[in-house]
Amino acid sequence: MKIIKQIYKFGGASIKNAEALINVVKIIENEKDLIIVISAIDKTTNELEKLVNAYFKDCDSKNVLLNNICDFHTNYLKGAFIDNYDEALSKLNILLSELRNKINSQPTNDYDLEYDAIVSYGELFSSSIFSEFLKHKGISNSLIDARQALITDSNHRDAKINWQNSSEPVKNIFGTGTGIFITQGFIGRASNGEVTTLGREGSDYSASALAYLLNANSVTIWKDVPGIMNADPDWCSFAEKLDVLSYLEAIELAFFGAKIIHPKTIKPLENKDIPMYVKSFKNPDETGTIIKKLDYKLKLIPVYILKTNQILISISPKDFSFIVEENISKIFGLFAQYKAKVNITQNSAVSFSASIDGDNRYFKALIGELQKEFYVKYNTNLELVTIRYYTDDAVHKMTNGKKILIEQKSRSTARFLLQC
Ligand code: ASP
Ligand code: MG
After folding, report:
1. Apex CA 246: angle with CA 241 and CA 252, to 5°?
2. What is the pLDDT of residue 260?
3. Nearest CA owner, ligand 1 atom 8
4. What is the number of structural domains in the chain?
5. pLDDT in tens, 332-381
6. Partner of 268 at 20 to 30 A CA spacing, among 116, 186, 293, 367?
7. What number does the ligand 1 atom closest to the CA of 199 have?
8. What is the pTM of this model?
């Protein structure tokens, strides 16, 4: 069976308005056999997150938020000036009224489940509009519902793909080997039928999962930056593009929090030796960054990764026991249960500290649970800076004038938890 060998992923910025759509068409118009994974338009996912919160708390604002999301997509479609407008609008309206019905129903008490049921609409809207836009441009395509293809576990908001259960549907659906397929990134389905999402920015992971399951030749992630940079250009004016990265290096960067790639993206590609290109949709002819197997050791310039909104939790046992295996495993068990993302840890004989992402909605519950057995203190609004291939100069640049709460150095990586 011939199978599609090329996968492109377009993020929210690359389809943020009609002008951007035209740019995307230029990139794909000469392709014949291609899977296109698409994210929600622009900042739609953030808006849907606000909607979930209002829905869950039953605030009046839910109707305003819902109307804004509906109007935004309807106007977007109108602004695309397509010949098949009526058909495109009726398809979009079906999705919009599904979302409306959902928002008018009673939520269960499972926030994460409700989150996935609602936030997944961002990609359903964008893929439907995008597919119709391509038809208008004379590019026939099949729109595939990713919920029928990518089967995940039930860990809502951070689901993992079940490779075994996804293999058959993915091959059956995409297995014709010809044509342009469009599908949603970021969303899938648990085996009990519920919609799941793969974690914020998870469309990259969808693209690499499809590549893995179809033994693709390559994945290309189209971005609004020239490639993978040694720092976020919005944060550091000196950011430079990295031309080549090994899989391992890319995994390390994503793990430490480089926002450019979703952390779960690289491993499936590494397992099958599938290269990933990160390119600019503004300058498609430029080379971008390639992530692939390297048989030489890369010499990289310092790479800076910033994680903001960190909370440092310091924990010590009330019974004066030491921080050893038993206490540590209890603490980590609670972190996992309350979905706390731990970014850096440090311990002494009688105390243990961990910095976690500050946007954790279960934070108060976690602290309450920890306080049953431990004395707990915490500091909010901290920054975690990681420098791969650090130099004295790089460290100075990042820490100068700031209070360092935790400092860790290995041969290649320095990490600093800083008070802003
Ligand atoms: N739309 C989702 C998000 O913004 C997924 C993605 O963009 O990859 O997080
Ligand atoms: Mg997005």
Report:
1. 85
2. 79
3. 201
4. 2
5. 999 999 999 999 999 888 899 999 999 998 999 999 999 999 999 999 99
6. 116
7. 9
8. 0.90
